[in-house]
Amino acid sequence: MTASLLSPVDLYCERLSTAFWAEPVNALSNLAFLLAAYFLWRLPLPQERGGVVMSRILTLMVAVIGVGSFLFHTFAQRWALFADVIPISLYQVLFLAFYVRQVARCSWLVTMGWVLFFFVVTYGVGMLPDQWLNGSVASYGSAWLFIGGLGVYHWRMRKVEPGILLLATGVFTLSLVLRSLDMVACQYVSIGTHMFWHLLNGVVLYLTTRAFILQTSGPRR
C-alpha cells in the first residue's frame, strides 16, 4: 500500500524526471489559487451566519486546491495526486450544495437531490474514454455542465452580477481547451500548456465563489 502511494505519476508535458522541481512553471502557477483565495477573503461577508460559514469554507477550499496541486506538481507521486484531485472534487460538491441551498433557497432535501444528481452525471461522464481531450471531458465535463447551468439560472434570475457564472463558464471552457492541448503542444512548447489551466482556474474559482459571496451578502430580493 505504501509503495503504491509513493509510486511516481507523470501526466504532463513539463515533467521530464522525478525531481522535486521538474515542473517549476506548473508548480508555481498554483499561486493563482492563493491569490484568488486572498481576494475572496477580502470581500464583504454575508449577513446570515450560515452564509458566512459557507463563504469561508469555499474560500479556504480555493487555497487548499492550490496547495494540493502544488504538492502534486512537485512530489508527483500517487498520494500527491489524491491531494490534488480530492479538494477539487470537494469544492465542486460544496459549491453546488451551498449555492442551491443559500442562493436558490431550496430545502436541504432538494439540495441533496441536486448533489446526488451531480454524482450521477459525474459518474456517467467519467465513463467516457480518457483519451478524449487528454482526459478533460471525463474528469471535468460534469463541472462544466453544472457551472453553465447555474450560470443560466444566475443570469435569468437577475442575481447580483448576473453574468458572473456565465463568464466563469467561458473561462473554464478556455482552461479545459488548454489543459487538453498540453501533450499536443509539448512538441512545440517544452513546458506545455498546463500552467494556463492553473492560472485560468484560479479565475474560475474566484468568479464562482465571488458569485456566492456577493449574492448572500446583499439584501434578499
UniProtKB/TrEMBL annotation:
Q: Where are the transmembrane segments?
A: 20-41, 53-73, 79-100, 107-126, 132-153, 165-190, 196-213
Instruction: Provide the topology term for how it sits in the membrane.
Output: Multi-pass membrane protein
A Pfam family: Ceramidase
Q: Which domain of life is it from?
A: Bacteria
UniProt subcellular location: Membrane
Per UniProt, the keywords (alphabetical) are:
Hydrolase, Membrane, Transmembrane, Transmembrane helix
Q: What is its main location?
A: membrane
Official protein name in the record: Ceramidase domain-containing protein
Write down the species.
Answer: Herbaspirillum huttiense subsp. lycopersici
